[in-house]
Amino acid sequence: MTSDLTGEAAHRVADGWELEWRLSRLPARLLSRAQALAGMEPAEIFAGTRYQRDVILAVRARSGRR
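Above: the chain sequence. Below: its structure as C-alpha coordinates.
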Protein backbone atom coordinates (compact mmCIF):
# COMPACT_ATOMS: atom_id res chain seq x y z
CA MET A 1 0.00 0.00 0.00
CA THR A 2 1.21 3.48 -0.82
CA SER A 3 0.23 7.01 0.09
CA ASP A 4 -1.04 9.38 -2.59
CA LEU A 5 0.13 12.35 -0.49
CA THR A 6 3.53 11.27 0.83
CA GLY A 7 6.38 8.92 0.03
CA GLU A 8 5.21 6.59 2.80
CA ALA A 9 4.55 2.98 1.84
CA ALA A 10 3.94 -0.38 3.46
CA HIS A 11 5.10 -3.55 1.78
CA ARG A 12 3.94 -7.09 2.40
CA VAL A 13 7.06 -9.19 2.91
CA ALA A 14 5.61 -12.54 3.96
CA ASP A 15 2.52 -14.62 3.42
CA GLY A 16 0.53 -16.31 6.14
CA TRP A 17 2.32 -14.71 9.08
CA GLU A 18 0.67 -12.44 11.58
CA LEU A 19 3.51 -9.89 11.23
CA GLU A 20 4.01 -9.67 7.48
CA TRP A 21 4.29 -5.95 6.66
CA ARG A 22 7.15 -3.41 6.68
CA LEU A 23 6.61 0.33 6.82
CA SER A 24 9.02 2.44 4.76
CA ARG A 25 10.00 4.56 7.77
CA LEU A 26 10.37 1.51 10.06
CA PRO A 27 12.08 -1.02 7.78
CA ALA A 28 13.56 -3.10 10.60
CA ARG A 29 10.17 -3.90 12.20
CA LEU A 30 7.65 -6.46 11.05
CA LEU A 31 4.07 -5.28 11.52
CA SER A 32 0.56 -6.63 11.27
CA ARG A 33 -1.68 -5.22 8.53
CA ALA A 34 -3.54 -3.13 11.11
CA GLN A 35 -0.27 -1.70 12.43
CA ALA A 36 0.91 -0.88 8.91
CA LEU A 37 -2.35 0.94 8.19
CA ALA A 38 -2.10 2.80 11.50
CA GLY A 39 1.46 3.81 10.60
CA MET A 40 0.33 5.19 7.25
CA GLU A 41 -2.52 7.33 8.64
CA PRO A 42 -0.46 10.01 10.45
CA ALA A 43 1.66 10.61 7.36
CA GLU A 44 -1.48 11.21 5.30
CA ILE A 45 -3.07 13.41 7.97
CA PHE A 46 -0.02 15.63 8.43
CA ALA A 47 0.67 15.86 4.70
CA GLY A 48 -2.80 17.09 3.82
CA THR A 49 -3.61 20.73 3.20
CA ARG A 50 -6.39 20.67 5.77
CA TYR A 51 -3.88 19.96 8.58
CA GLN A 52 -1.56 22.69 7.31
CA ARG A 53 -4.44 25.17 7.11
CA ASP A 54 -5.52 24.26 10.69
CA VAL A 55 -1.99 24.89 11.98
CA ILE A 56 -1.85 28.29 10.24
CA LEU A 57 -5.25 29.25 11.67
CA ALA A 58 -4.20 28.18 15.17
CA VAL A 59 -1.03 30.29 15.00
CA ARG A 60 -2.98 33.28 13.73
CA ALA A 61 -5.59 32.86 16.49
CA ARG A 62 -2.90 32.85 19.16
CA SER A 63 -1.26 35.96 17.71
CA GLY A 64 -4.57 37.81 17.31
CA ARG A 65 -4.25 37.97 13.49
CA ARG A 66 -7.02 36.97 11.14
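Residues 10 and 27 are 9 Å apart (CA to CA).
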